[in-house]
Structures are given as structure tokens and as C-alpha cells.
Structures
1.
Amino acid sequence: QSYKTINEVETKVDSFLYLAEEEARKKAKELDDFLSSDGIKGNLFGIPVGIKDNIVTKGIRTTCASKLLENFEPVHNATVVEKLKVANSVTIGKLNMDEFAMGSSTENSGYKLTRNPWDTERVPGGSSGGSAASVAAGEVLFSLGSDTGGSIREPAAFCGVVGLKPTYGLVSRFGLVAFASSLDQIGPITRTVEDNAFVLQAIAGYDKLDSTSANVEVPDYQSSLTGDVKGLKIAVPKEYLSEGVSEEVREHIQAALKKLEDLGATWEEVSLPHSKYAIAAYYILASSEASANLARFDGIRYGVRVEGDNLIDTYKKTRSQGFGNEVKRRIMLGTFALSSGYYDAYYKKAQQVRTLIKKDFDDVFQKYDVIIGPTAPTTAFKIGEKVDDPLTMYATDVLTIPVNLAGVPAISVPAGLANGLPVGLQIIGNYFDESTVFRVAHAFE
Ligand code: GLN
């Protein structure tokens, strides 16, 4: 069915970089045989999934949407892919994204444009644009994305699907090609909150192969989908409904709060006073980490090599031709911020700001169960509208980035349509409290 839908819609949406049809049919056949002998085994038995192309898949090309990795076939699976294998889902293919997950519209892919299924003149969001578009278009039942500054939630909001960035450390990052290691998290994109909880259940948990993996017990997420939000205390940061947030988005968030009130929850306005420094701090920290992480792509160890006159020349040629403009911009910014003499002024300062942002969240969670606001300031924008202006593009993530800096979990759920385009509602929870996030999110289904 997945390939049938893909045949029908893929030319319009272009979510996939690579279809693993042969592997998928083999797996489906195995499951069929299994079904006739032993019955259903695994929570995601036979469910078609698409994987963002920065998550490594054994023997299946993994390019991070970069020309530099055009020929890269990993020799192992990411932990999340292994876990999906155990749950018996079927990998349909690899999904388009912004190159190395740097972007908010998937327009920075080295290969193709992905279009928003709601309006193909508009972007699907990014960087997990393929992951969100494929679910919205019905090509797969769920997908995996990665979120460093909003890359699961913003495309989920733009495409009208459910996207969760789990608490930092809940889901193993082993096999996720690192962008900014202190921020990156893998998470599920699904049609419903219930599906999202099922997928998180399958991929969460301690992994000794990831040194940042948290050794915590994973609760049963389905049991929190009661629909009961009575007595819950909700905080609404005034910074999340102020300038930059469009009128139509604001109205939908207010309607959602009204609905929660009707269901017995209460809400109050609060302040996250350091939010206004989040984008500036993020671009120093994320770019610094990216400049170090991407040093490994030197043409020797992975991917495409462009031969030069000597070793240094080979590095230069490979990286000049392999990386796109946005990736180069981040590497230059990060290298500058980390250079001696500037370290204290930029990197250290940004780390200090990060601590203050985290403290803002800690303070609010002393008194409230969840924080609610929009996922993005606007609905999906037009293709080409922001590509030439990186700063406007960066501002798209103003409401999602603070969450990554703090490390808390957050989900984006559809909160209605404005002028025919989906609006995303963001529900932010305390550390490792995905259960409450799901509980509130489920009230919108
Ligand atoms: N748009 C942000 C960036 O370009 C976030 C990307 C992400 O979450 N991977 O860095």
C-alpha cells in the first residue's frame, strides 16, 4: 500500500531520497510467513516507516542530503533502526532533509525540493521535511526525524501531523549523524498522538553505545492517553504569543487553551525571560559543535573524495565541492566562535546564556505541569520566500530552540487550519515527563 501511495503522490511531494523497495518487500514477506506460523509479534508489526536520511541504515544509502555522502552505505544500523527491526516495522526508504539537518524548510537539501502536501507551492518545514511530508501524504504510517532546534516539531506543524522531540538522552543517538551533539534528539512523526506514544515506546531506553543516553526507566506511555486533563496546571509564556507570532496562529492557540479549560485544566501567563537570547546562543553553540562534528568529512574516511595535488588539497577540494552553502556558513561561524581569543566572548557566553534558559524552564516547572504555545510563529511559508535571507530563516525556530537548549521534551500537535494551512500547537513538558505531554496532546484528538 505504501508503494502504491508513493507511486501516486511522490511526484508531487518528493519526500524520499531513496526507496528501499527490495529490502522492504523481503521484510514484508518474512513477516507474512511469520504471521501464518506464529502470529503478530512486535508492537509495530508490518507498519511502514520512513527514516530521515541522517540516521544510518545498514546497506541502505545514507547521505544526510549531502553530495559529500552521495555514495555512503553504512555498515551498521542506528540503535533506533535496530529497535524498529525488533518491533517488526518495515523500512520503506530514506527521507529528504536539509543537508546535515541545517535548515527549516528542506530547501537546503543537496538533492531535491520537498513540497508541502497541503499546498505544493509551500515548504514542508525542516530540517525533517521529508519525514513530515511523507506522513502527511500517507506514504508511510510514521517516520523518524531528528530535532536539534525544532527540526521535528516545525515540519510537523507545517504539515499538520504529530511530532515529538523527546527529552535529551531518552532516545539513543547512536547512528544519528551528529550535527550538534548536545542538542540532537531523534523522535517520531505520526498522524496521531496514540501512534506517537507507540513509536516512542519502541525506540526509547538506555543504550550503552551512546554516552549521552540516560539510564532511566521508560514508563508505559499508552496508559497516559486517558483524555483526562482535569486539574492540570498550564503555563503560557507571554514571549510565545508576542511579536512575530501571526494573528491567525495566536487565535488558534487561544482556542486550544479554551478547550483545555473546558476540560478542567487551568492556565496562567508566565515569563521565560531569557528566551529572547535563545536564537543567538543556539547559533553559536550549534555551529561550534557542527564545525567539530563535520571535520570527519574529509574525503578520506567516508563518502565522495575529490583528489587533489596533496592531502590538504584533497581535503579542500572534497569539502568545497561536497558541502552546500548553509553547511559551509555554519562551519565558518563555528570555527570562528571556537578560535582562541574568541572562545570566552562567544562560546562561553553562549553556554552561560544556555544555563539561564534552562533555569527559566526549571522555575516554571516548579509550579506548572506543562508549557503551551505555538510551535512556529506562522503557517508554512512559500518555497523560495526565505532562502536568500538566513536570519529570517533562523527566526522560524524562535519557539522551538529554547526547548533544545534546556533539553526538555516537546510535541507539536495539529490545532486546526488557518487559510487552509495547518497550525501547530506546542506542548512542552518537564524532563522525562513525556507521559504528561502525551496526556495533554491526546485531548486534541
Ligand atoms: N533550523 C535549525 C537549524 O537550522 C534547527 C535544525 C534542526 O533542528 N536540525 O539549525
2.
Amino acid sequence: AKKSGRNTVLPYKQEYSSSLEKKIFLEEELRSAIRDEELMLYYQPIIDLSTEKIVGCEALLRWIDRAGKFVSPVDFIPVAEESGLIYELGNWINATAFKQLKLWQTLHTDMKYISVNVSPHQLQNADFVKDIQRLLDIHNVDPRHIQLEITEGTFLQESLNTQSQLRILGEMGFRLAIDDFGTGYSSLAYLKRFAVDVIKIDRSFVMDLEDDPADRDIVKAIIAMTTSLGFDTLVEGVETREQSLIVGALGCGYGQGYLYGKPTFADDYAEQYIGLKSV
Ligand code: C2E
Ligand code: CA
Ligand code: CA
Ligand code: CA
């Protein structure tokens, strides 16, 4: 790739000479993206498999840069985490989702909850509970209508801030979801200590479900285990009718994936899934 000088405007599709260079570039861009409000939340429906009704949705962060190009959260969330920007960003995500939930609930929809992703870095900050309480107050939202998606590993972290805040969030009434389940430590007994509501089974187990009997056995075992511990189960990344039928037959309660609906921006979501025209 051609080297650019400090004050040259970098082209968006540049190749970076190193991953460090890419990271530094992304971090600077992300700072200005937050400032210039280039970020938005998309929403993806979550389905009750027994009734096929939508019960809620997951908020997923999107960055559309000045050139109109989508930057994947898989690329920029880690950058936000390493730079500490994730804390401020996380508060913005929570505020935006709470405001959206309030609006949709006011319009008399039967949305039970909005699910937001919480990075382990956010929970290490001792102010997390205080800040999220303030946001609940500002937007007049009941924590029982907010689900926090937290990866397995976070629950096993020895950080006292994380441990105590996870407990307090459960006591406050937030719904707690274990995200990407099966990819990490898989200590279900440990999870029992927290007020966990639902286990989200990672997409990697669902992808080849039709053809791979081993995956089917794994999913079956996870559902049996989690159900016996009293957690609900949700499968992520359901793309085909057959996958949906298989996980339903295995006793899984909830599903999410392109089959039921792709993540989309708020107005589009309202129109497609809750029958509201441009609100
Ligand atoms: P995740 O939390 O596991 O989110 C699910 C990802 O799977 C999303 O990708 C979603 O668009 C995608 N997905 C949903 N259904 C299907 C399907 O049927 N097939 C396939 N192939 N993919 C499906 P997305 O939005 O690109 O997000 C990627 C990851 O970035 C998320 O994984 C999460 O770890 C992170 N992320 C996204 N938004 C946020 C956020 O607001 N905060 C934090 N901390 N992380 C976020
Ligand atoms: Ca998630
Ligand atoms: Ca997930
Ligand atoms: Ca994932």
C-alpha cells in the first residue's frame, strides 16, 4: 500500500501496512464517528418458537462512515474496547435502546424487551450500575424490559467490580442473557449463582445442524442441561426452516436469525415487525 503523510486524507479502502496502523486509524475514525453521530442501532427480532411470535429484539450497533460504507462491529468493537472508548459508547447504546423501547411501548406494542450487548470492559468500570440506573430514570424504563447480553467468560472474571455489578443488575430486575454460549468456558453450575434468564447458543452450533449429527447432539445436550438448571434457551443464527424445526423439536424456546428477520434500522423494524408506519 502507498504510504500517506500525516495530513493527507486517507482513502477509505486503503490497505494498511500493519494491523497497528489499521487500529490507530480506526480508533481516530471511531472517535469522530461518535462525535459526528455516524453510529446507529439496528434491531433484530427474537422469536418464541412455540408460538412463532416476536417477543423482543436485539440491538446491534452499526457504523456508517462518511463515505457511506458499513464498518463491521467485529472490527471496531475490539478497537473501542482497547482504547477505553467502549464505556462512553456503551452508555450511548444503552440510552438509545432505552429511548427506543419507551417509544415503542408508548405506541402500545407488546414488545417484552430490548436486548443490548454489554462488553466485559463496561462492567469492569465501577460506575456501570450507577450510570445504567441514571439512564433508566431519564428514559423512565423498567429494567425487566431490558435484557443485557453478556458473554460467558465475563461471569467467570475475577474482577470484583464485574462480579458485584452482575449480581446487582440481576437484583435490579434486568434480564440477563449469556451470549455466544458454548464457545467459552461452559461452566453452567457457576452461572447458576447469577440471576441468568436465557442462554444464547452460539451460531457456530446451528450452521451445520441439518447435516452434522455431532452438532445436533451438542445442541441437544446444551438444551437439556440449561433447561434442567432453569434457564431459557435461544439459538442464534437460524437461517433455514429446517434448522428452526430441529431446534424447536429439541426443546429450544427461542430463536433469532435471518430466517425470522435480519437486523434493520428502527423505522423499518417498526414497519416490518410491529406494524407501525414511520414513527
Ligand atoms: P453477537 O452479539 O453474537 O450478534 C449476533 C451477530 O450475528 C450479529 O452480527 C447479527 O447481525 C448476526 N446474525 C444474526 N442472525 C444471523 C444469521 O441468521 N446468520 C448470520 N450469518 N448472522 C446472523 P453483527 O451485528 O455484525 O455483530 C457482530 C458482533 O459485534 C456481535 O455478535 C457482538 O459481539 C458485537 N456487537 C454488535 N453490536 C454491539 C453492541 O452494541 N455492543 C457491543 N459491546 N458489541 C456489539
Ligand atoms: Ca449478542
Ligand atoms: Ca451472540
Ligand atoms: Ca457471536
